[in-house]
Every structure is written in structure tokens, then in C-alpha cells.
Amino acid sequence: MTESLLEVKNLVVHHGQLKAIDDVSFGLNVGEVLAMIGANGAGKSTLLRTIAGLHRQTSGSVFFEGVDISIVAPHRRVSMGVSLVPEGRRLFSSMTLQENLQVGAFHAKKGPFNIDRIYELFDWMPSRRRQRVWQLSGGEQQAVAIGRALVANPRLLLLDELSLGLAPIIIERIYALIPEIIAQGVSILVVEQDVSQGLAVADRVHCLLEGKTSLTGVPADFTPEQVERAYFGAGLAATTSREGES
Amino acid sequence: MVWLNVLVQGVLIGGFYALFACGLSLMFGVLKVINLAHGDMAVVAGYVAVFLTPHLGLPEVWSFLIVVPIFTLAGYVLQRTLIQKSIDRDPFTTLLVTFGLSVVIENLLLEIYSANGQTVNIGDLIAKSWHPASIIYVSYVSLGVLGVAVLVLFLLQLFLSKTGTGRLIRAVADDREAAQLSGANYRHIFGVAASLAFATVALAGIAYGMMTQFAPTSGGVNLLFAFEAVVIGGIGSLWGTLVGGIALGIAQQFGAHINVQYQVLAGNVLFLAVLAIRPQGLFGRKTALA
């Protein structure tokens, strides 16, 4: 019995005149990892930001744990259990590592994560907790950004372009954490340009092409050619696997 | 010895500039709002101290006990209504709105209290001073204001670095959107920051009224000095504001010592020199300009 956590229905989002998301629907069940893939400008980040509340949709709705959160303010969504790790990490640059985590923990829900737990997850952090975050490397900053989102004890973690600007070995290390996060009862929606990385961690995959769904289903059901077509848009017909219709 | 006295007087007046400027710095650092009515709000605080506190049977020296809480509340309310509405439109609107506020305040004060000068009556304390050497006079009032300025900056710094709400204020100042993603209601945080700024401006207004005469239009020139103190010290650095205020005060006193007409000019020259040589200010971070 799978329990629905997030339900996006007929979502349309505009950036000014531009239709960035065009009638996209999908669901995410508790304990699942869903990878949202697509080329630059396909609307992936806009989709995540809309779920987090930073963009207002033109039409359609977002349900979280069965509640319509379409018009809930972003900070209220955090206390409901939706946390976004934004693209580009967006740490508080005048603060230390520990202060960044403290800000994340200030409005936290009750749950498995606290600052000490984050320090266990990333064992290099305690010795450097008093450093300003701009002194950390890109990978370390990404870890702090993930930690800052996790201390709020989200039910749904939205990860936007984790791999951007990081060395492959660092990306691997960060993705290796995902099973551990899932084990704590957190579900994950991850946005990636790096298709192989996205497909490797995901239970299901959803591909966007120019704001529209071009492919949705279980990664194993698709040939690389199908994914390529959905990603770059050689043929615009949506491809759907057997199990992807839920 | 003459020059030492000039230096001492500069430091004393610099303390007042810092007290006046820290609210401006906070409003700009956190809300990104340049409050053009900052000086006029200080003047309002002076009027409230002079005309309200005697009715409550309180000596005017203690007027801050009444005025500071009123301003703290007013700051929050004004931020959550008028100023937030203008922030939601665009930065230019905040300039227009605060400029409009400034005009309205000045004219209301003129209408109600006329253009006569007022002072916050502190009895014979005004004339007392410490006299450590032949020609050095340290006015108790100025010394008290410098002490209050240092205390206020110290408490603000402590609040911003050690409390959860203070950290949220810094988080919002760093990156408003990321702070929202950490669960912070930035509008409320803006309100808290505005409260703090208004509390300090109330103290500055009362201090000004104790040191000298003020009139409905006194806000403007003090706003200019406050701007200069903030820019010299470096935007976003509270202790920088103190150093900036003192540097400005010293420059003005040196100018005045050469020729009284050079007082404001010397301050402006220092201000322009800092802008040209070190635009991020003495204690500012380069990234704060980006």
C-alpha cells in the first residue's frame, strides 16, 4: 500500500510572458525518489520552486499530504514538511557553518534530524563548524545546504541540481547519502541535468521538455534512445511506461 | 593640547552620529530600504519626549522609557503596512514613500508645534562637564550619549549573533529567499529589524534634544551625517558605523578648528575620500557592494 505524499495536478507556471511549466501532473509516494530530468530551460527548477512556494502557479494545484498548499507561503510550507535545497546552494554567506544549520533548525518540525545528527552524517563538519561558509569548497557548501534543509525535518526534500559545478567524485559522495536520508522517512524529488546520475538514484523518472511532460515511468523500462528523445525532443509525443500512469 | 581637545570633541560627537546611524544601517542592511525619513523620525522622538512625558509626571531625562517602546511598536506596524507595501512594488517606491513620509512629518510638526526650537530639558546637567586638563572639557551629556551609543551597538551585535531571531535577521539580510526556505517569515523578520531601528532612532532623537536645540526641519542634516557615518564605516558593519561616526566627528571638529565654516565641508571631504579610495567603507566587505 503506497501512500501519496505529493500530488501535482495540471500545473501551469509563467515567467512573465513565458510559459515555463505547461500542464504538468505527477505524484510522489512516501519513501520514493523521483528524478525530474530535462535539458536546460525545460522548467525543472521552476517546478521545484513552485512546489516550495517561491513561484505562484498560473493554474493547477499542488497537494501535500492530501492538503492543497497552492497558496501557502513558502515559510509555512517548510513547517508543513517541504524543504528545498536551492540551485546554487544559497548559503548565508556572512555566517559560519554552524550558524547556517542553526537558521535551518530554528523553525524545525520534530523529527529524526538535528544539528548533532547532521554532524554525524558529515563527519568533517564539527571541526570546521566555526568557519565562514565561503571558506568551504563547493562540495562542502552543498553538504551544508543539504544539512540546513534536513535539520528542518522535512517529509519531502526537494534537491535542485546538486551536481552543478562539482567534481564527479564529490557528486557520487553526495548521492551516496540519499539511501540514508530515505531511511529516515524522507521522500525526495531530485532535479538533475545529469541524466545518468538522476536515473541511478531514482525509483521513478519524469522528463520535462519545454515545460511539458515528455516521459514518465520507471527508469528500467526505457531504452537510452527513448530517454534521449524525451530529453532533446526529437519526437514530441509523450512516452509512458506501463507503471508510469499512476 | 588644543588638537587633543579637537580630537576629544570629535570622538564625543561621533558617538552621537553612530547612535543616529545604526538604525539607518540596519534598515538598509536587512530591508534594503534607504529610509529618507530616518532623521525626521528622530525629530518626532524628540517632540514626543518634550510634549508627552511631562503629562505623565516623568522627568524628561527619563523620557526614553516611554518613547523607545512607542517607537519599537510603531516601527513594526509601519514596516508591516506602509514600508512592506512599497518594498513589494520596487526599491524606487521605497525611496518615494520614505521621502513622502519625511515631507509629511516635517509639515505636520511645523503645523502643530511651529518652527520654534525645542530642547529635552535635563536641568543643570546640561552645563556640567568633566575637566581633566586646562582646555579639555568633556560634557557629561556628550559622554553619556557616547556611552549609550557603545552600549546600543554592543547589545545589537549580541542580539544579532547570539539569538535565534537575530540570526534570522542576518539570514534574511544575506539571502531573503534562502531564509524563507529555512522557514523564516521574512515580513515578520523585516518588522523586527524595523522595530530595532526605530528604537535606536528614538534614542538618537532624545539624545539630540538633550545636546542641542531641534526644530521640525532638523532631520535632514542629521540624516546626511548618518549616511556619511554608515558609508565611511562600511555598510552592514555595526562597529564600522561607530568608527565611521567617530571619524566623521573628528574630521568635522578639525575642520571647524581651522575655520568654523569648514566644519561640514571637512566631513564631506572625508566621506568623498573614503568613497573614492575604499568604496566598501573601512569595515565593509567587498561583497556587500555586489
Concise synopsis of the structure shown:
The complex is a heterodimer of chains A (246) and B (290). By secondary structure, chain A is an alpha/beta fold. Chain A has helices spanning 44-52, 74-80, 97-106, 115-121, 138-150, 168-175, 178-183, 195-201, 224-232; strands at 4-15, 18-29, 33-37, 59-64, 67-68, 82-85, 156-160, 187-192, 204-209, 212-217, 239-240.
Shape of chain A: globular
**How much helicity do the residues of chain B have?**
over 70%
Distinct helical segment count of chain A:
9
Using only CA atoms, what is the Rg of chain B?
Answer: 19 Å
Proportion of residues in β-strands of chain B: under 5%
- The CATH topology label of chain A is Rossmann fold
CATH superfamily of chain A: P-loop containing nucleotide triphosphate hydrolases
- Give the helix proportion of chain A (percent range): 25-40%
Q: Could you say which structural class the secondary elements and strand pairing of chain B correspond to? A: mainly alpha
Kindly report how far apart the N and C termini of chain A lie: 13 Å
**Largest interface summary:** A-B, 27 and 21 residues
Q: What brief labels describe this structure?
A:
heterodimer, A: 246 residues, alpha/beta, Rossmann fold, seven-stranded mixed beta sheet, 31% helix, B: 290 residues, mainly alpha, ABC transporter involved in vitamin B12 uptake, BtuC, two-stranded antiparallel ribbon, 2 strands
Outline the secondary-structure elements.
The complex is a heterodimer of chains A (246) and B (290).
Chain A: E1 4-15, E2 18-29, E3 33-37, H1 44-52, E4 59-64, E5 67-68, H2 74-80, E6 82-85, H3 97-106, H4 115-121, H5 138-150, E7 156-160, H6 168-175, H7 178-183, E8 187-192, H8 195-201, E9 204-209, E10 212-217, H9 224-232, E11 239-240
Parallel strand pairs in A: 3-8, 3-9, 6-7, 7-8, 10-11
Antiparallel strand pairs in A: 1-2, 1-4, 4-5, 9-10
Helix pairs in contact in A: 3-5
Chain B: H1 2-31, H2 38-51, H3 64-89, H4 91-113, E1 129-133, E2 136-139, H5 140-162, H6 164-174, H7 176-181, H8 186-211, H9 219-233, H10 238-258, H11 263-277
Antiparallel strand pairs in B: 1-2
Helix pairs in contact in B: 1-5, 1-8, 1-9, 1-10, 2-4, 2-8, 2-9, 3-4, 3-8, 5-6, 5-8, 6-8, 9-10, 9-11, 10-11
